[in-house]
Automatic annotation (TrEMBL):
GO terms of biological process kind: tyrosyl-tRNA aminoacylation
Stored Pfam families: SYY_C-terminal, tRNA-synt_1b
Protein family per UniProt: Belongs to the class-I aminoacyl-tRNA synthetase family. TyrS type 1 subfamily.
Record flagged with keyword Secreted: no
Record flagged with keyword Chaperone: no
Protein name: Tyrosine--tRNA ligase
Name of the gene this protein is made from: tyrS
Top EC class, one word: ligase
Organism: Arthrobacter globiformis (strain ATCC 8010 / DSM 20124 / JCM 1332 / NBRC 12137 / NCIMB 8907 / NRRL B-2979 / 168)
Family matches, as SMART domains: S4
Binding site for ATP: 248
Upper classification of the organism: Bacteria, Bacillati, Actinomycetota, Actinomycetes, Micrococcales
Compartment annotation: Cytoplasm
Catalytic activity: tRNA(Tyr) + L-tyrosine + ATP = L-tyrosyl-tRNA(Tyr) + AMP + diphosphate + H(+)
Amino acid sequence: MSQLNDLESQQNDPSFANIWQELKWRGLVHVSTDEVELEKLLAGEPVTYYCGFDPTAPSLHLGNLVQLLLMRRLQLAGHKPLGLVGGSTGLIGDPRPTAERTLNTKDTVSEWVGYLQAQVRRFLSFDGVNAARMVNNLDWTAPLSAIDFLREVGKHFRVGTMLRKDAVASRLSSEEGISYTEFSYQILQGMDYLQLYRDYGCMLQTGGSDQWGNLTSGTELIRKVEGKTVHALGTPLITNADGTKFGKSEGNAIWLDSAMVSPYTFYQFWLNTADADVVDRLKVFTFLTRAEIDEIAVSVAERPFAREGQRKLAYEVTALVHGAEATEKVIAASAAVFGNGDLSVLDEQTLAAATAELPSASVDGTGLGIIDLLVASGLSDSKSAARRVVGEGGAYVNNAKVTDPDAVIPPSQLLHGKYLLLRRGKKNLATVQVSGA
């Protein structure tokens, strides 16, 4: 994420009676504690709320983005966010439904805490009367002895209740089973809520609905220890209309860190959203108003070929995560690759991302004849076929037509001193990386 978000331009939709009604319309409420009381709470005086992010990877991903934007919407409604990055829970790992996590080293987790804190900071305002605050649960768990943990916190948890939690139950019925370490995770998360209630008067925790057992471990702990009622809100797990898991691309998560998923790849992910999903995605992942989204919905239904919804979605979310400048570069790269822009103005990272899925070849930098390039890149099967392509006006190098079959491409035309983009006709593309130029 190379660009700061323009937080000042963000606002909730004033057409809703309150923030709870907007969250419901956007499809962000899957499960919660007492809905009537929670709506009253959020419609009243500012309250402190939190969401936790565990450093089990060096970056947050699209599932976390749902929570970050929910936190921002609540902050825009006047409430006070606490961004918790779990320096201690990250050492343990939330139980996955299928297998035990591999524990990362303390140094690795500590390093990742810093990465995630920086990402969280980009989505919240740390100024003003309801400024966000960052917290790390290692601060209150590290000084606690095992005996004190068992006496002061563990005694309030009932094993039968813990066994019924979804993640625990699924693991118990698997061949892998579950370790005592991961089994104890819900106690740690419950303790976090108790600590934040005591330190900041925190009244609400948000998270994905698959975290519901962990969320309610905190509400129950506070009820038992403090005799107070606090709240939890679980957002739905985002899935595609065909039932597949959202945010996965060939088995890889869509990360928010530009070094792990380039802005170009990120933009293309959203641009490829199915028509059946695009309106729901606009509701969850953008600050567009109900009226604006309703208008786009008409276009999606009546003119799906125009892909207005996908283009708006891709722009808005990429700008949120990577900034407007990076997003404009991505759009320019897409146009340039297909012949509608200047390739030479693209930085090397953007060019590499934009051409990453194209066929590619490596050649030596001496005597770069157009015929040899077309054959080496796979755009032509033979030299005679390549000559026909050139003769028919269908050969392009860096979007410039080449009409002489004996043309030799000079080193001055190499993009960033080593790349060429070849095109046969309108849509057949390939890249060549030149060595020794």
